[in-house]
Specification:
The structure holds two protein chains of two kinds. By secondary structure, chain A is of the alpha/beta class. Chain A has 17 helices and 19 strands. In chain A, the strands form four sheets. Chain A has a six-stranded mixed beta sheet, with helices on both faces. Chain A has a six-stranded mixed beta sheet with strand order 15-16-17-12-18-19, with helices on both faces. In chain A, strands 11-10-13-14 form a four-stranded antiparallel beta sheet. The radius of gyration of chain A is 25 Å and the shape is globular. Chain A starts with a strand and ends in a 7-residue tail after the last helix. Chain B contains 14 helices and two strands, in the order H-H-E-E-H-H-H-H-H-H-H-H-H-H-H-H. Chain B has helices at about 5-15, 20-35, 60-85, 90-105, 120-145, 150-165, 195-210, 215-225, 225-230, 235-260, 275-285, 295-315, 320-340, 340-360, and strands spanning about 45-50, 55. In chain B, a hairpin with a 5-residue loop joins strand 1 and strand 2.
């Protein structure tokens, strides 16, 4: 073990049934260092964190901690705490109904008798030393999220942790709160605490971190010094695409020419309560466009605002030139908009209901409460889309939850196609499904567009977007930062625009 | 060699997975028990009541008579359970309220009216409104304020009977008009108790509602996945509220029967503990108390099974104080058998039993 290392993980393997979550991953954390752990969804970040905090037990590999001669075994969160590893999660894991001081001292076994005066005093000293301005007797739940995060950190610091893991702590903080948190992190850094910072925000990585560890598909891509790692390079490492790799990028879809026609859909300064900055957006008949950006950049929130899935807080929307109000999904549906959500399990399927009921649901709701389809009509619709989309199901009566992920996705797609939308929004329609189905869905999108349907297509895989979209809107940190068309549709410009800072593609 | 399952196999496994299995088995068990213990249980005789009208009597008639209020409540409770994943424990108290309102409109301030102050239908409609308002109150707390159903309905559970007494200034009005007693008794010339017909009517009305509207699809969608339901254009709050209002309708009907039986009301005793039996009927009918998919018919069957059990216990001279203890034992058995994990284990057990048997036959 290197002498100024706090923590070394060597050759970590971890698999779950059917998935190799981590393969030969190394990680080194030095004293007084903030290390960013980066990677897209499914890269293995959270598995690595869970191995380190004892939530999962590794299959093989060694973990060394400063002060321990041999490799340490971490089999439970308690053992992780004993060797000085503390974690602050995105979701606060403290007790909101207890006071700040109680939260800091709870479960630390200081004998049977509790001297509250003493504890409050010690909490005050601790908080003052960290520059956190909050009354120790205040109920934690009444503090802002940022203060709650900092109390969680203070608790970790007081428990003499040497390694602090911050798992997306800033995702629910605003800018000034984030600044405060960064101040605290710098302070801890000066005291020699090593931190692993997990985030999706590139700007924040470049603001506070010293080094970056990048994971992709459960494997280590590399460890880099922040100063030697341009943003574009980082994005390309995360996505696994070489910046200069121009091969096989060909935009098959005809770029849209009828610029003079009225847009099918047009939004001005649209925003929702999910923190996206107001954005302008339009789409013509038969056009396929896409929102791109890293995870958490706000691409899903944009389409959710268009569909009225989140609370729309401002902006005007026109359909075919006519101003319309879209505040709820049913408004969007009545205007001919359909939305296939990103999280199939949470937002897409009605698990216990049959494939048939899942297919007819949206059209049925659109048709109205007092006009149910007859069983025969419903069967006809279900059979039609099972055949059209080649859905593998035992019968129309099978509960959708017993289908495979790809087939569930096709059922949801069928549900929306059945409503014959003018504008179809697909948020990650190809996530977690096999390659063949992916290609089918892409082909289908292009076919629908050629028949006059407008489509917004979101995918984490840039190839897919390039293959299907004639225009890309680029999001970064919940802001629309660029629009790419025609010749600009290349991996390079996309990555440059996503990364921002150095060059602007839009 | 993969042997094709015989029709017998698939029939058995289908039955094992059918929701109706548990209430049906319980019913058969109770029937067999009574048949062995005392076959006179099933005797039905035709007699005449004090007015000289023909009436059927016997334990089975008692069951379909007194099980009817429970069956009506079980219908509403099934919908509430499916949509909100919780139960309304205030139905007994709201029966007291709607019954009290009914009497108040019929009697005015006169506790022993010679003639009714208003037609029965008017009085019923007013009590219906009161019960639907109570349902809307519960539903609003559950749907819009996201309060757990048991906690939300605890308010009316606690306050309901006092409100009921207050409606009639704590008086106990008595109705002497014969027509009013038809609802909980017998219509002259028809020997079958009226509550049974009312229950059938409510059942058919709900069945039609499920058949000719999308109530069933909407309620199940909201109960299974509220987020998805919202993204498909549904308004989960209104749907949940609606099920509580529908339960209010059921409460008003049950209240009419209850008050009609006595021609008066006892605020602290009327429909006491009926909420627990109604919830039990839903569970016995194989419906998940956590909501989602539901089957109204099995709940109704469950309600009559519970009444069957109560009547059986009465027949064997179980003291009314001890009744609940006996009931509890039966309930524990029923609930354990119908628990999904137990069901899975039993069907696995049956499968195991069959495999060596089949192999032996082939050999």
């Amino acid at each position: 073990m290197n002498e100024n290392s706090l923590l070394e993980m060597r050759g970590i393997y971890k698999s779950f049934p059917g998935v190799k979550a981590l393969q030969n991953v190394d990680l080194t954390l030095r004293e007084g260092e903030i290390m960013a752990l980066m990677g897209e969804n499914g890269a293995g970040k959270s598995t690595l964190i869970k191995v380190l905090t004892g939530v999962h037990v590794k299959d093989s590999g060694d973990i060394f901690i400063k002060g321990h001669k041999d490799a340490v075994q971490i089999r439970s969160p308690q053992e992780a705490q004993q060797v000085g590893i503390s974690t602050v999660y995105q979701e606060i894991s403290l007790c909101p109904n207890l006071s700040v001081a109680e939260n800091i001292f709870i479960g630390r076994g200081e004998g049977r008798m509790v001297n509250w005066k003493n504890i409050n005093q010690r909490t005050k000293t601790l908080l003052d030393s960290l520059g956190i301005a909050v009354d120790p007797t205040r109920q934690l739940g009444s503090c802002s999220i940022a203060v709650q995060q900092m109390v969680a950190i203070a608790r970790a610091v007081d428990m003499e942790c040497s390694v602090l893991i911050l798992d997306e702590p800033t995702s629910s903080l605003d800018e000034s709160e984030t600044e405060k948190l960064f101040g605290l992190m710098r302070d801890l850094k000066a005291r020699g605490v090593g931190m692993i910072f997990v985030t999706h925000f590139l700007d924040q990585v470049y603001e506070v971190c010293d080094r970056i560890t990048v994971l992709r598909d459960g494997q280590l891509v590399g460890e880099y010094d922040i100063a030697e790692m341009p943003r574009v390079q980082l994005v390309s490492k995360m996505l696994g695409k070489e910046v200069d790799d121009m091969a096989d990028i060909k935009n098959d879809s005809p770029s849209f020419s009828a610029k003079d026609s009225t847009p099918l859909y047009e939004a001005k300064a649209l925003c929702s309560n999910q923190g996206i900055k107001p954005f302008d957006f339009h789409l013509r008949k038969g056009e396929v466009n896409g929102f791109t950006g890293l995870l958490g950049s706000g691409r899903s929130e944009c389409v959710r605002a268009i569909f009225g899935a989140d609370k729309v807080t401002g902006g005007t929307v026109r359909m075919e030139g006519k101003e319309v109000n879209i505040n709820k999904p049913i408004d969007a549906m009545k205007n001919g908009i359909a939305y296939l959500p990103e999280d199939r399990k949470r937002d897409g399927i009605i698990g216990d209901l049959s494939v048939r009921e899942n297919i007819i649901l949206a059209l049925q709701v659109k048709k109205g409460f007092f006009k149910p389809f007859s069983r025969a009509e419903a069967e006809k619709f279900a059979d039609e889309y099972i055949k059209l989309l080649d859905i593998k199901t035992a019968s129309t009566n099978t509960p959708i939850k017993s289908l495979s992920g790809g087939n569930q996705q096709k059922v949801i797609l069928g549900r929306w196609l059945l409503t014959h939308p003018k504008y179809l929004i697909l948020d990650e329609p190809t996530r977690g499904i096999d390659v063949g189905t992916k290609v089918d869905i892409q082909k289908l999108v292009l076919k629908l567009a050629s028949e006059g349907m407008s489509v917004t297509f979101i995918s984490s895989e840039t190839d897919e977007m390039l293959r299907t979209c004639s225009r890309l809107l680029v999001m970064r940190d919940r802001r629309l930062v660029g629009e790419l068309t025609g010749d600009q549709l290349t991996q390079n410009t996309i990555m440059n625009t996503i990364a921002g800072g150095e060059s602007n593609g839009g | 060699m993969a042997a094709k399952p015989t029709t017998q196999d698939s029939f058995l496994s289908r039955l094992l997975h059918n929701q109706i299995l548990i209430p049906l088995a319980a019913l058969l068990l109770l029937a067999v028990f009574n048949l062995i213990a005392d076959p006179s249980f099933f005797k039905i005789s035709l007699g005449h009541n004090s007015n000289g009208d023909p009436v059927l009597s016997g334990y089975l008639i008692t069951i379909i008579d007194y099980g009817s209020e429970l069956a009506i409540l079980a219908i509403g409770m099934t919908l509430v359970t499916a949509a909100s994943g919780g139960q309304d424990i205030s139905v007994g108290a709201t029966i007291a309220i709607s019954g009290s309102v009914l009497l108040r409109v019929l009697c005015g301030t006169d506790t022993r009216p010679e003639v009714l102050h208003s037609p029965i239908i008017v009085a019923f409609l007013v009590s219906l409104l009161a019960a639907m308002l109570c349902g809307a109150f519960n539903g609003a707390l559950v749907a819009f304020f996201k309060i757990q159903p048991m906690v939300a309905t605890l308010i009316l559970f606690t306050a309901g009977r006092s409100i009921a007494a207050w409606v009639n200034n704590n008086e106990l009005p008595m109705i002497t008009e014969a027509r009013f007693s038809y609802f909980g008794g017998y219509i002259p010339g028809i020997p079958i108790p009226t509550p049974f017909f009312i229950a059938i009517l409510v059942f058919i009305a709900t069945w039609a509602l499920l058949k000719f509207t999308n109530l069933g699809l909407y309620v199940q969608s909201v109960g299974i996945n509220e987020k998805t339901a919202r993204l498909n254009g549904l308004n989960p709050e209104i749907i949940k509220l609606g099920t509580y209002v529908l339960l209010g309708v059921c409460v008003a009907v049950a209240g009419l029967i209850k008050v009609s039986r006595l021609s008066t009301i006892n605020y602290s005793v009327i429909a006491k503990d009926i909420e627990m039996d109604a919830i039990l009927a839903v569970a016995l009918g194989g419906n998940a108390l956590s909501g989602g998919k539901f089957n109204m018919s099995t709940s109704v069957l469950g309600a009559y099974v519970i009444q069957f059990l109560t009547t059986t216990l009465y027949k064997f001279d179980v003291q009314s104080d001890a009744l609940s203890a006996y009931k509890a034992v039966v309930v524990i058995i029923l609930v354990v058998i119908s628990a999904p994990t137990v069901r899975e284990k039993t069907s696995a057990f049956f499968r195991k039993l069959r495999t060596p048997d089949g192999a032996a036959k082939r050999g």
